[in-house]
Amino acid sequence: MIIVLKPDCTEEQRNDFAAELEDTYGVSVNTWVGAQSTVLGLIGDTACIDIDNIAANDIVETVKRVQEPYKKANRKFHPDDTIVTLPNGLQIGGKQLSLIAGPCSVESEEQITEVAQRVQKAGAQFLRGGAFKPRTSPYAFQGLKAQGLDLLNIAKKKTGLPIVTELMSVRQIDLFLDAGVDVIQVGARNMQNFDLLRELGHIKTPILLKRGLSATIEELLMSAEYIMAGGNENVILCERGIRTYEPFTRNTLDISAVPILKRISHLPVIVDPSHAGGISWLVEPLAMAALAAGADGLIIEVHNNPKKALSDGAQSLTPDQFDHLAARLKQAAPLFGKTL
Ligand code: PEP
Ligand code: MN
Description:
By secondary structure, this protein is α/β, with parallel strands linked by helices. It is built from eleven helices and 14 strands. Helix 3 crosses helix 4, helix 3 packs parallel to helix 11 and helix 10 (280-293) runs parallel beside helix 11 (319-332).
């Protein structure tokens, strides 16, 4: 961290401030006194320092971080890609392109097993399906909750596909662990539910962490940091579109977040083109773009009857449309160093 002091700062003020920084934060301070200004360089772990607190000091002109505030998620300290491995040996990250597919919400045994069988046949390695749904309206379908987890397990038994499903509250962690959920999704709306993130740091289940609706890339990584700091390093980042002024799409897929995240973090990065575009015909081109941008996988909503879906029907692919997309991904994946 670099702190530029105001030109009228006295030597005594400067020395007191440097001593206070060393004392409070356990860093060492290097001082450069120039003709126009004085600069303090903080050496050591500055991650816990609140930059606004420093900036609020009367003698401080500007403050700049030269070190990222995220450590565990930072590629600088972990140059190799992280590959998340499930107990059954399936991996997310590395050479394999991961395909996670299934309905927005689990609705019935027939629906989830039919979709599971179809997406598996097309090449998906994971089944998604929401049992606890974060809906904007409290009057909209809220999910089948615990029963939804049971139905996911029935589909898992029939297909062998591991389950990816969203957890909304700390209160449901034990239920999810008892249900044997393979990958726990933290949805966009909960990306900064810090209590939840902290608790998920204490379990071993991989966490699929979705980017918040208006979260910056650094904020996403800081949320990953919450989970990792607790000891759970199995975090998968997910770009799912952010809110912009463009009303044509549900969200704007921030495609540049994919290569940026891959560059600055070692965690696997997947893309959700369904919630990004919000329109079924946009899913395929956005998915292809994600593959080209370097994504490690895709999470895609598929419904056996989108017109009748209880949530997100407009953006859901039919199983036939998913077949088409999976075939194209399979064909294109080797061009981008992936296999499917
Ligand atoms: C979902 O996956 O169905 C979902 C609600 O996603 P997001 O949190 O990205 O909106
Ligand atoms: Mn959805």
